[in-house]
Amino acid sequence: MPNNTVPLRSPEEAASIIGKNIRALLADQGRDLEWLANEIGISVHSMLKAFAERVEMWMIFDASFYLGVAPDVLTGATDA
To answer: Is there a domain that residue 52 lies in?
Structure first.
């Protein structure tokens, strides 16, 4: 039976992965962090700080909504 468990990651490592995935999706869509921060209603500085420390769940859900993807895509839990 395959092991389907997600490896444990530190909050900083998870935040870095989420930030990388968000930046990649923004680039694919021809948008930037400033656009996403404005849509969510926070500053770019706050978003970058979250990518370095810890991304709150509400930010993942808001970003996934505006980017048009499932939250799993941002967290790296799936490639879909």
So the answer is: yes
